[in-house]
Amino acid sequence: MSGDSDAGRRVARAAAEAFGGTASLALHEDADQTGALGVVTAPDSPEPGMTSCATVGLMAHDMGLTAEGASLRVELLTAGRSDDDRLAEMLVSIALAQARCRVACGHGKVVPDLVPAAYSQHDLRHVLFTVPFLWDGPELVRLDDVLVAWLLVVPISDDERDYATRHGVDALEERFGEREVNVFDRTRRSSI
């Protein structure tokens, strides 16, 4: 990757541009205080009363995937209520847990037990990785021999995980839409 600080700036800029408004970049530790990543935070994005967050630095972890002749890496995005002061910390915890378990994440993948207990309200302890549908972008970022893609983190319950296993992730996402589930509310109850 071209200079780590340049790569981080380019990734942070892509997230900030997608979020719109005023975005800031700060270092956040995970729940165990064993690791940290940069997080771009944008209040009132994608709408007033919500905050958008994106990791900056997860791309340093090679998942062993390739795309377009480059090493494919990811950064994670989420959104939540603006009064959720632990949103960025939760995102960093999920990102670093994903990096430690070395399981490649991708669109439509469900990873069990990835949300630390400190953030898992109403048993939303599993993660669905999906396309970042809330924003216009962010765009893929090419860094020399690395391509950085974006995945949206959606915490889900045991029943939602089981539903996705039986019927597929598309069916779960459809159910969310039909029931108008706010998947960004960490205090929500399971939709199943």
Question: How many distinct folded domains?
Answer: 1
Shape: globular
Helix content: 25-40%
Class by SSE composition = alpha+beta
Low-confidence stretches: none
**Overall pLDDT, averaged?**
87
> Could you give the count of β-strands?
9
| Major beta sheet summary | 9 strands, mixed
- The succession of helices and strands, N to C, reads HEEEEEHEEEEHH
How would you describe this structure to a colleague?
The protein is α+β, with helices and mostly antiparallel strands and 192 residues long. The chain has one domain. Helices cover 27% and strands 30% of the residues. Strands 1, 2, 3, 4, 5, 6, 7, 8 and 9 form a nine-stranded mixed β-sheet that branches.
Summed up:
With 192 residues, this protein is an alpha+beta fold. It is built from 4 helices and 9 strands; from the N terminus they run αβββββαββββαα.
Distinctive features:
192 residues, globular, 9-stranded mixed β-sheet, 27% helix, single chain, alpha+beta
List the helices and strands and how they pair.
Layout: H1 4-19, E1 24-29, E2 36-43, E3 50-56, E4 65-67, E5 70-81, H2 87-101, E6 109-111, E7 126-130, E8 141-143, E9 146-156, H3 158-167, H4 169-178
Helix pairs in contact: 3-4
